[in-house]
From TrEMBL:
The keyword Lipid biosynthesis does not apply. This is Dienelactone hydrolase family protein. The lineage of its organism: Bacteria, Pseudomonadati, Pseudomonadota, Gammaproteobacteria, Cellvibrionales. It comes from the Bacteria. Signal peptide: none annotated. It holds the Pfam family DLH. GO terms for molecular function: hydrolase activity. PANTHER family: ALPHA_BETA-HYDROLASES SUPERFAMILY PROTEIN, CARBOXYMETHYLENEBUTENOLIDASE-RELATED. It comes from Microbulbifer echini.
């Protein structure tokens, strides 16, 4: 599980425990709970600490050090990192990828995943036209686009856009998705 800018939170730990017994949470703050007071504070800190490039480097190194293939799930900026992993040499270390509302992927649409990616779009994003983004993603081989009816952050209890209905629906989806992995990937 690759966190959003909030990093390791109790809510993310609960989500992970709900969908999988066997999981590892990767976050941009190396496991330190930051307890940000606002999304803006989390964003500013994330950018000061190196942003997407540093986060990708950290997660890429972790994925490559595993002795088995991993299923990767990313949320928001974590979804962007998951996309980058799926599209680069790291894809050899990944079984499958799920990206939740990774709007920054719009900057990486020229890259192509080497493995299946399930991509969950928010119903709208202030930074882009969702219809165009969805259409562009849908044209990319191995990408399965899921258009949701929920706003960016619907899986994060700390987000003002959290949706209990969406959370329940997509936790159930993730549980099934993770159970379909090969037995050798459960190590």
């Amino acid at each position: 599980m690759i966190s959003d800018i909030w990093g390791l939170t109790e809510a993310l730990e609960q989500l992970c425990s709900r969908v999988s017994i066997d999981h590892k949470i990767l976050d941009p703050y190396l496991g330190e709970k930051m307890n940000f007071e606002s999304e803006e504070a989390a964003y500013q800190y994330f950018m000061r600490e190196g942003g997407v490039d540093n986060y990708y480097s950290f997660v890429n190194k972790y994925i490559r050090a595993q002795d088995h293939k991993c299923n990767v799930v990313g949320f928001s900026v974590g979804a962007t990192v998951a996309w980058m992993l799926a599209c680069r040499d790291s894809s050899a270390f990944i079984e499958q990828t799920a990206c939740f509302y990774g709007s920054r992927v719009r900057h990486f649409l020229d890259e192509r995943p080497g493995k299946n990616v399930d991509f969950f779009l928010a119903d709208e994003e202030p930074s882009l036209n969702i219809s165009d983004f969805s259409r562009n993603l849908s044209k990319i081989p191995l990408v399965n686009v899921h258009q949701t009816l929920f706003p960016h952050g619907f899986m994060n209890r700390y987000s003002s856009n959290f949706s209990a209905d969406a959370y329940d629906r997509y936790c159930d989806w993730l549980r099934v998705w993770l159970q379909n992995r090969p037995k050798w990937a459960t190590k």
